[in-house]
Design goal:
The protein is an alpha+beta fold. The protein is built from seven helices and 15 strands. 26% of the residues lie in helices and 29% in strands.
Length: 244
């Protein structure tokens, strides 16, 4: 998660020079700098699972996978972030060791502290990356995954993967059981994980708004079925009664 540092405004080039002198990582958005705070052990393990699956899958291929410490630059939004995991297949991205500009896949592991930003403002920025084919949000606590993909009309469509199902990432041709991504060494909640729905009621109001509004009013994001839209709408009220 990124938290506001003492108010600093600078260009991205100045930000890169300044960050080299800092002990912790920062993210950059329209001239402002935000400190990147640490995550939980579960967050780290889930990110590591996905990184290793992608690294093994992409071995010997021209695509490269990076985890946490490599920056993605979004020129159109004047922003720069540190995704939990990203994949780039662009030859030009090999030229810069610190910053990548043409990712095809970005993965973020959610936490109560990061969900609002990851699904809200950050996703708005990521959608402006022309090369991006999939944006993946992993909920380490609920063991569910949400995938956003742009359709031919440029609208980002939401696909949910629940416990017991398979995760398919079209951008890199990966197809694995979701459990390989979400497994941790921490004791899992009791009950039937396969039948428990993803608790999207914990997700930010902005995402729920994207999902239930008519697609003609929100051309950037669409939901592939009325059933899912109804499920999201029903969760919105529950979310509003909760706080992170």
């Amino acid at each position: 998660m990124a938290e506001a540092a003492p108010r600093i405004r600078m260009t991205h080039e100045a930000f890169l020079r300044w960050e080299e002198t800092q002990e912790i990582r920062h993210e950059f958005l329209e001239g402002e700098v935000f400190a990147v705070t640490g995550g939980t052990d579960r967050h780290n393990m889930v990110s590591g699972n996905i990184y290793m699956l992608l690294r093994q899958h992409l071995h010997g291929k021209p695509c490269r996978v990076f985890m946490a410490d490599v920056q993605v630059r979004v020129e159109a939004a004047d922003a720069a972030f540190y995704p939990d995991v990203m994949v780039t297949c662009a030859p030009e991205d090999a030229e810069d060791r610190r910053v990548k500009r043409h990712p095809s896949l970005i993965v973020e592991a959610l936490s109560p502290a990061t969900a609002s930003f990851d699904i809200g403002r950050k996703f708005t920025c990521y959608r402006q990356i022309e090369s991006l084919r999939e944006y993946v949000l992993v909920d380490p606590d609920e063991m569910g995954i949400e995938i956003f993909r742009p359709d031919p009309d440029g609208r980002w469509v939401l696909y949910s993967v629940r416990p017991g199902e398979r995760l398919r990432l079209d951008s890199v041709g990966l197809d694995v059981p979701i459990g390989q991504c979400t497994k941790t060494s921490i004791e899992q909640p009791s009950g039937d994980a396969r039948s428990a729905p993803l608790n999207i009621g914990r997700l930010p109001t902005q995402l729920l708004t994207y999902a239930v509004m008519d697609i003609h009013e929100t051309p950037a994001v669409a939901v592939p079925s009325a059933e899912r839209a109804e499920r999201l709408a029903g969760s919105a009220e529950r979310y509003r009664k909760r706080s992170f």
